[in-house]
Structure formats: C-alpha cells, structure tokens
Amino acid sequence: MAGRDIGEAHRVSTPLELLFDLTFVVAIAFAGAQLHHAVAGHHLAQGLLGFVTTFAAVWWAWMAFTWFASAYDTDDAHYRLCTMVQMVGVLVLAAGVAKASEGDFTMLTLGYVVMRVGMVALWWRAARQHPERRATAMRYVWGILFVQSLWVARLAFPLTWGPLWIYGSWAVLLLFEMAVPMWAARAGHTPWHAHHIAERYGLFTIIVLGECVLGATNAVAGLIEARGWTWDLVGVGFGSVALVLSLWWVYFLAPFGEALHHHRERAFRWGYGHFVVFASLAAMGAFLGVVADQLKVAGAGTAVAAGHAALAPTLVIGLVAAAVAIYLTSMWIMTTHVAGLKLRMGPVWAAALALLAGVVAAVAAGLPLAWALPALALAPAFVIAAVEHSRRRKPELHQIH
Q1: Which of 296, 326, 324 is nearest to 311 (CA)?
Q2: What is the Cα–Cα distance from 217 to 211, expressed in whole angstroms?
Q3: Of 300, 348, 324, 296, nearest in space to 239 by CA
Q4: Got the DSSP string for 319-346?
Q5: Distance (Å, rounded) from C-alpha 274 to C-alpha 276?
Q6: Spatial separation of the C-alpha atoms in residues 331 and 276, rounded to whole Å
Q7: 9 in the Ramachandran plot: left (φ > 0), alpha (ψ -120 to 50) or beta?
Q8: How many helices (H) and strands (E) does the chain have?
C-alpha cells in the first residue's frame, strides 16, 4: 500500500468497488422513501430536514472510502476484508435511516462505528507502508477517531433537548467530518487518480438516478392502476423517462476526469459540491413518488390514496421542478467554475430554469399533472441541445482551462 500511480492508464472501478456501491442503493432508497412519506403526509419541512441529514450521512460514508480507494486500492485479502467490514456498516447505517429522519441517530452512529473500524485500519496500514504520506495518513487516523468519538458522545444527550440541538449538533459534527480531509491534505495530498475518481462519481450519479427511475416507474404503475391505459399514461411515461435520461446526459456533458487531471487543486470544491448534485437527484426520485400518489388520488376520485391526503398539483410539480432546478444550477457551477470550461452559456442555463418556473405556473393555471412531466424535461433537453450544438460549431470552447 505504497500509493497508486496517479497517471496509471486504463484505471477503472474494481468489482469490489462496484459491490461497495451496491450496499448504498439500500441506504439511498430508504432515505428517499422517508422523504416521500413525509411529503405525502403533509410534513414537508420535517421531511426535507430529515432527508438532508440522512442523505449527508450516506454521501459522506461513500466519499470516505472512494477517495481512499482511488489512492491506495491494493485489492488483496486484507484490503478486501476491511472493505467488507465497511459494507456491513453501510447496511447498519441503512437500517437506521428511518429513525435518523426523526432525529434519532443511534443506529446511524453504530453503522458509522463499524465503518470506521475498517477505514481506520486501512489508513493505519497506509501510514506504515507509504512513508512519504505517513503524516497525512496519521492525520486521517486521528481525525476520524476524534470525530467519531464526538458522534458517540452525542448519543448521551436526550432527544428531548429538541430539534435545535439535534440538528445543530449534527451540522457542527458534519463540518468537523469535512474538515478532516482538508486538515490531512495540508501534510501532503494522497495519490488519487483523477479519471478514476470522475468515473466513481459518475457511477454514484447513476445509482442515485436509479431512485428517479423507481419514482418514474411508480408514477406509471400508479396511473395504470387508477385509470388504466389513457393518454395521460403517455404523458407520464414519456415525460418521466425523458426527464431521467436528460438529467443523466447533462451530468456527462463536461469532461470532469480531464479537468481533475489538469487541476488537482479543484478536488475539494468538486468532491464536496457533488453533495448538492446527488441530493437533488435523490429528492427528485422521492418527489416523483409523490406524483404517483397524486395520480392515484385523481384516478380514484377520492381525497385519500395509500393513506395519504391529496396535495395541490402546483405543490407536487413545484417540488419536482425545484429538485431539477437545484440539479441544473449545481451542474452549471460544476461545468463552468469547477471543470473550468471556456464555454460560457449562462443565458442557456438561466433559460432552462425559466422553463421550469413556467411549467409550475402552467400547472397552477390548469395544465394536468400528467403532462407537466414531459414539459419539465424540456429544460434539461434545452441545455443538452445548446451545449451539443456549441460543441460541434466551436469545439475550442469546450477545452479545460
């Protein structure tokens, strides 16, 4: 474990990394399901707060291993066993998502304790076998142990202290977590591989988009169950699929691997900034599930479906549009200020956001909810068309600088 070559050719994700990602599918699904049920039950604020806290825990657990693996993956027996210990921790973490969304982080913290055992063992090995980065690795060891001890100590305080303490302390400790890599990097950067990291983030984006596919499938199935085969089904089916596929395309418009290869100093902005990218997609998947509920309500001609009271169509489509808007805005920032493309298409991205707002206004004016989904897909499709057209006409503007 002497550090991987940062210029290694054909570096790709290993089967073990793909298996590791698979464990996060469950955790992300649970976080999305909690948000879906909270919104459907008219607890939007509480649901969003719970979702942000639980999804941040999931995201950070994935981040910690991914960057280490990019620098020190040996794929031997010791490395595999330590990674599998972390997988067990992820599954424990996933089991605690429901309680964490209510402010009880006991199971979530236990999952992290299990994960930290494997992670600290790996960093300790790197410290012993990579002398050039021993100081960096040991900072990770002590930083992880210190922050984890604070998480465990936090459990001693009762939930009766209220939301301000529960979520305030959570926010402070998350900042501590994010500070550990920055502190460790001051002793020297680990030899992570730019194209490998970009691929890993792309794969996680696809995993999160899987939640959107699930939401889209539920919307179609709900409409079939409530109304059978109708023209509205065409709108929901085409619109939800087009939305998911276009959001995937938007992510891969920029050559992030090349950008990180030439500008390794942008790693923290790029890596941390992806929290917004991932969270907005996961939230959109949950909101598509809410759309499915409302389509069942309308089809059944009753005010209640699946135990959930009906929501205003404008609110429902507004939530989906907001998630898409946050995603597009974060990708706008990523491609211009982080990837550093010479291309400047601010008016195009702004027009896409205006399209989203226009769809919400149209629903408020009477546009059926089923036909709002294909209308929302026009926003990312517009961005794709503009960028691809520019790529053909002015390829020099798509170079990294």
Answers
A1: 296
A2: 10
A3: 324
A4: HHHHHHHHHHHHHHHIIIIIS-BS---H
A5: 5
A6: 9
A7: beta
A8: 14, 2
Cα dihedral sign, 204-205-211-213: negative
What pairs with residue 400 in β-bridges?
341
Q: What span, in angstroms and rounded, lies between the C-alpha atoms of 371 and 238?
A: 9
Using DSSP's 3-state secondary structure scheme, residue 73 falls into: coil
> Can you tell me the distance from the alpha carbon of 57 to that of 278, in angstroms, rounded to the nearest whole number?
12
Nearest in space to 60 (alpha carbons), one of 279, 211, 259: 279
What's the alpha-carbon Rg for the chain, to the nearest Å? 22
Q: Which residues of the chain have pLDDT under 50?
A: 300-307
Alpha carbons 61 and 363: distance in angstroms, whole number: 39
Residue with tokens 């030439």: 262
400 DSSP assignment: B
Nearest to residue 353, comparing CAs of 319, 393, 382, 310? Answer: 382
Q: Give the pTM.
A: 0.90
